[in-house]
Each structure stands twice: as structure tokens, then as C-alpha cells.
Amino acid sequence: MRITVVIPALNEAGNIGRLVAETYEHVPSPTLAEVIVIDDGSDDDTPGEIRQMLASGDYPGLRLIRHETRCGQSVALRTGICAAAHPVIATMDGDGQNDPRDIPKLLEHLALPGEDGPALVGGWRQTRKDTGSKRFASRAANKIRDWVLRDDCPDTGCGIKVYWREVFLRLPFFTSMHRYLPAMFQTYGHKVAFVAVNDRPRQAGVSKYSNFTRALVGLYDLFGVSWLRRRTRVPVIREVLPVEQQATIWPRPATPPVAAGTDHRGQTHRQVT
């Protein structure tokens, strides 16, 4: 399985270069095809760190894509995923708090594209390294989100995930969707799983979110996603062929799609190691 690692970054000088180097060190080279860093309009030396790594020639498959103006994390992720050349995507936040050592562990639980099994495996930070207020806010947000969406996602804000590129690109896009990917994958009939991962303290820079800002945006998005899940129907599509040919289903679903009038939670199973 060859993968593309996508890392969105905004003003992460002091973090992004270290994170990219760790990715090349800890993800086996037969698996790691490329690393795409999306600079979301940074005004520090974030792009400079990646340019130096590109110039060294020591990081095959490393790419830098820059937004001229800031567009947000979800847009940066989509930019990188659209540019990716491989069918499996791994994502991490650019602040270095996600540990690249966890990527191979997540991949162990991911089904191959088109096969039955999880199309997305998300990280679950069981031991957080953030401040007490952020940990409290995160726990509260997860409880509220699970009550509204019933998606059984234990840690929607964890940036480290692996998933199928094709499924992501078929989802309706909206800003902040990166926080709702497990729910959206389920809505479209795909299984998801969650695996315990490491969480590390930030080494440089500051967080781009405050608890208050995240809460306001989160409530707005939460009810939008809830509406979208209720209004989504995924049909089973069967092409009618001449009698001498065998009927086929297109597109081949990874799991039985959610039928009209059924629960939109889909099927979730957890695998925690």
C-alpha cells in the first residue's frame, strides 16, 4: 500500500520541518510515496523550512504547495488531497503534536480501497498533552457532537487519520469538514475505526484556535452536518445489462449503503490497540 501524507500548516516554523523529517524516518519507504505540505498563507518561515528540505534532496516525494491567502485547514487538506497521486491518504496537523510513528499502526486497520472494512481509521488521543481548559473543552465538544450526530467518534479533533482518497473526494465539501470526516464517511455507507495514538506537546508557536472561537464555529457546523446527514440518501445503483452479461453494481460499494429511511449512523467498529 503506497500512501500520500498530507500536512496542512499555518505559521508552524520550528514544528513543520521536524515533523516532516520524522515522517520520513518512521514511515517505511515502501509505504511512503510522497509528503505534501500545504502552507496556508504563513507569514513566518514555514515555507522556508520545507524549501531547505527540498533543496537538500534527502526527501524523495516531498512537495510544497502554497495558498496565497489563508483559506483554513479543511481547504488546505482538500488542496493536498486533490494533488495527491496515491489512493490512500494519511493526514497530520502541522504543529507536531501528532506522532508519525502512529501512521503504520493506523494503516494496519485500514481496508484496501474497494474491499470490505474500514475506509477511514482515526486516531484517538487517550492521553492529551494540551492545557486543562482545552482538554475539558474537547471532552465536552465530543459529548455534544456524539449526542447530536450519534457517530460514536471518540476524538473528532484528532488530526492523524488514514482514509481512502476517492471517498473523500466524493463527499460534499464545506469548511471545517475535517472535524466531521468519520460522520461523513458513515453517512455515505463506509465503515470507520479508531485506534489509540500518541499525543505530544507543541514545541514551538501557538495554537490557532481559542476555546471560545472553536465552540462558536463548532456549534454552527455541528447542526449543519446533522442536517446534511438527515437529508442524505445513498442509493444502490444497478446497471441493467444484456442477458448474456452478468449484472454489476456500480460503483462497487465498500459496505452496504445507507438506504432511504434508515439510520444514518452507518456501521462503526472500534479497534483500540
Give a concise summary.
This protein has helices at residues 16-26, 46-56, 73-83, 102-108, 132-149, 165-170, 181-187, 211-231; strands spanning 3-9, 32-39, 62-66, 88-91, 118-125, 161-164, 191-197, 238-239, 248-249. The protein is an alpha/beta fold. The chain has one domain: Spore Coat Polysaccharide Biosynthesis Protein SpsA, Chain A (Alpha-Beta Complex).
Overview of this structure, please?
This protein has helices spanning 16-26, 46-56, 73-83, 102-108, 132-149, 165-170, 181-187, 211-231, and strands at residues 3-9, 32-39, 62-66, 88-91, 118-125, 161-164, 191-197, 238-239, 248-249. It has a seven-stranded mixed sheet, sandwiched between helices. A two-stranded antiparallel ribbon has the order 8-9. The chain contains eight helices and nine strands. The model is unreliable at 254-273 (pLDDT under 50). The longest helix is centred in the last third of the chain and has 21 residues, at 211-231. The protein is globular, with a radius of gyration of 19 Å. The chain has 273 residues and is an alpha/beta fold. The protein has one domain (3-231): Alpha-Beta Complex (Spore Coat Polysaccharide Biosynthesis Protein SpsA, Chain A). Helix 5 runs parallel beside helix 8. The chain is 34% helix and 17% strand.
